[in-house]
Amino acid sequence: MALSIRIFPGRSSWPLMVLRAVPAVVLLGFLVFRYGNPQWHRYIYIFQVHIVPRKYKGNVDRTGVRPKDFTGVWVDWDRQGNKRDETEYRGGVKHGRAIRYRADGSVSWKGNYERGRLHGKVTKWWWWSPGVKSEEIHYVHGYREKNTWWDEEDGNVIAEGVFRNHRRWEGTFVEKFCGFLDVVNTYKDGKIWEGKKHGGGDGMLQTFRNGVVVATEPDIRAFSFGGTLKDGKPWRGRFERWDNDNKRFVLKTYRDGVVVDVATDADIAAQQDAAQQYDRGSSKLIAVPLP
């Protein structure tokens, strides 16, 4: 009697085998996404960082996925799967090239690190004009040595200055006020020579000529919520003022020159989002009526 051996299962057995394999495949996939190397694929990174973040006990950095002693090129992605930045590390410390990207894939920032500190040339590009250079900074072991700025429209150099002892020392510098007002100031021997500078907690802007204050005017930052002035000082309405002690902006409400209410930073943000009466792009000021 011949012995018959079936090496392959019959046709009716294949669906059953597939069904039995599905749970194992799902479990394997979950283990890969949950505990696999987040650099294997961006979707593993997204799963571990943005969807199901894990808690670690000191063996990784604050992002929760990169080992503290990591050596190599580390890539970060945002929740949508767009590459956010890639940085070279040595023993867990930034060392080598670093690049930051926009959502469209264009480069917004590129520089170089040496033992955790910026060293060499750092280049930035205008956010709303990809490919148009906005700023170039030369670092020496973490400290600025030279700064150059370019205009967004025509690409011409608008300011160029050098640093000494970690301070603006000689040349022209672009100084930002509240992130939207840019002023080009000229410095000599570490002091402002020509230009404008915030005068402190009084909400005024000082104009310098030949190193001397020649005029004082309301700082545009102080009136982003509108209001009425009297004798050059806040009189009635809401004013965003600089708190020099706490190094932050606060929202003050004035009645007849007297402060009657002080809001927090969160209140300022909420009011800006709700009212949408301040156009940061054009620095347009619109008065807001008192409550």
Give a written overview of the molecule.
The protein is mainly beta and 291 residues long. It has a domain at 22-57. The chain contains three helices and 18 strands. Helix 1 (14-35) packs across helix 2 (42-51). The strands form two sheets. Strands 1, 2, 3, 4, 5, 6, 7, 8, 9, 10, 11, 12, 13 and 14 form a 14-stranded antiparallel sheet that branches. A four-stranded antiparallel sheet has the order 15-16-17-18.
- According to DSSP, the number of beta strands is 18
Q: Structural class, judged by helices and strands?
A: mainly beta
| Sequence stretches where pLDDT stays below 50 over 5 or more residues | 57-62, 274-291
Morphology: elongated
Largest sheet: 14 strands, antiparallel
- From N to C, what is the helix and strand string? HHEEEEEEEEEEEEEEEEEEH
Helix amount: 10-25%
The value of Rg in angstroms is: 29 Å
| Number of continuous helical runs | 3
Q: Average pLDDT value?
A: 75
Instruction: Give the N-to-C terminal Cα separation.
Output: 103 Å
- Please report which band the strand proportion falls in: under 5%, 5-15%, 15-25%, 25-35%, 35-45% or over 45%: over 45%
Could you give a short description of this structure?
This protein is mainly β and 291 residues long. Helices cover 15% and strands 45% of the residues. It has helices spanning 14-35, 42-51, 265-275, and strands spanning 72-77, 83-90, 93-101, 107-114, 117-118, 120-125, 133-140, 143-150, 157-164, 167-177, 181-188, 191-198, 204-209, 212-218, 228-230, 233-243, 248-255, 258-263.
